[in-house]
Amino acid sequence: MKKIAVLGSTGSIGTQTLEVVRANSDIKVVSLAAGSNIQLLEKQIREFKPVIACVFNEEKAKELKERVADLSVKIVSGMDGLVETAIVEEAEIVVTAVVGMIGIRPTIAAMEAGKDIALANKETLVTAGHIIMPLSKSKQVKILPVDSEHSAIFQCLNGEDKREIQRILLTASGGPFRGKTREEMRSIRVEDALKHPNWAMGRKITIDSSTMVNKGLEVMEAKWLFGVEFEDVEVVVQPQSIIHSMVEFSDGAVMAQMGTPDMKLPIQYALYYPHRRHLDGKRLDFSALSQITFEAPDMVNFPGLRLAYEVGKTGGSAPTVFNAANEMAVSLFLNKKIGYLDITDIIEQAVEEITLIKNPTLKEILDTEQATYEFIKGRWSD
Ligand code: NDP
Ligand code: MG
Q1: Measured between alpha carbons, how far apart are the two ends of the chain, in Å?
Q2: Is the pLDDT of residue 382 over 80?
């Protein structure tokens, strides 16, 4: 029996992880964590019977405790609670599906406790990759990618020698505003940006996909996961989202992983790696597929991707500023406090403004996050 912890169980990746669990009888959920959605969390607790569950919001945690008083589950809250659910003794794999940098501490704690990580929470790797990757080596724990592109690359690398990687070809759909100029994007509303052409995801990553900041975060994620240089990660726009990413090797061979867009595939692959097993769902029908097309990404109208390469190459705390500025700007946009183009403007200004720390400790990463929030608060929010 495989035992897993699911952090962010009420979200898009979290609920799809639980669908994979439902379809397999040899996997058990031992802990769950959410931010505040106790309605759904209570249902999940009753169905999956974990030993412990965390609600980050303290008030909501109290309410949940009363609601599940008839069960033996332990209810915890806050950052300490989130860490406790990540290091619960029974768990072998921790699925990190919380959104944002909040995932750093529980991920590090889980690794220190010897757990393998099924990583969806890319913000953690972007900001603390220089801590996470060496830790995975010293603790001999696996980082199994859940992000579809990185899972595709991971699958293409099966049985290969990483030293023979020439280029990583990270595919992108281009999002709902592909082909538009910045001027045309000025009046985009929240409702427009929340419509992704191929994937149904959480709100924050849907906005990130539309600005191509998501692809920028994924470039940095790829650098850490596969130990390559930024020059060797090329973004290829493939609007139909059929090729989930590719690897070019030193002899010129290119391996691609294809499939219909379904996050359950990379989730299941991470949970059962190196084994494959049946997954219900639509299959690619090549006779019905009219075309797979390719374009270069537009870094002029989508400056988020250009900035990501820049902060990635700068390194140190620069990716943290990029990421924290994006998290806050997206939240301001979703709350209709700023315009659409302000998102990347805010990132650019924060990156210019906040002091660079070369090799930040965990505390310095979290301090940089706060400094970035303070900088933005002072200028853009009430
Ligand atoms: P969602 O917004 O759908 O879900 C986020 C989850 O995190 C929810 O369960 C939420 O709980 C929980 N959460 C939020 N804040 C806290 C907190 N402080 N403590 C504990 N739990 C918290 O996000 P997604 O599932 O879309 O994304 C999750 C991660 O996976 C992100 O890093 C994203 O980039 C990555 N990812 C997502 C993909 C997708 O297809 N969705 C694809 C590839 C990567 P609550 O519901 O209570 O708010
Ligand atoms: Mg992705």
Answers
A1: 51
A2: no
pLDDT tens by residue, 151-161:
999 999 999 99
**Tokens 């030993």, residue located:** 51
| CA dist 358 → 129, 227, 325, 374 (Å) | 13, 19, 18, 21
Geometric angle at alpha carbon 97, from 305 and 39, rounded to 5°: 125
Residue where the block lists tokens 């929470």: 121
The rounded Å distance from CA 205 to ligand 1 centre is: 9
> pLDDT tens digits, residue range 317-345?
999 999 999 999 999 999 999 999 999 99
Query: Quick one: tokens of 300?
Result: 């002029």
pTM of the full structure: 0.98
Q: How far are the Cα atoms of 45, 134, 214, 360 from residue 355, in angstroms, in the given order?
A: 44, 25, 24, 12
Q: Show the tokens assigned to 39.
A: 């309605």
Report d(CA 301, CA 348) in Å as an integer.
Answer: 14
- Ligand 1, atom 19, residue with closest C-alpha: 35
Nearest 5°: phi and psi at 3?
Answer: -115, 130
What's the pLDDT at 309? 98
DSSP class of 354? S
The owner of tokens 């692959």 is: 269
User: How far is it, in rounded angstroms, from Cα 327 to Cα 101?
Assistant: 9
Ligand 1 pocket mutation, candidates 205, 225, 268, criterion most atoms within 8 A of CB: 205
Of 222, 210, 208, nearest in space to 100 by CA: 208
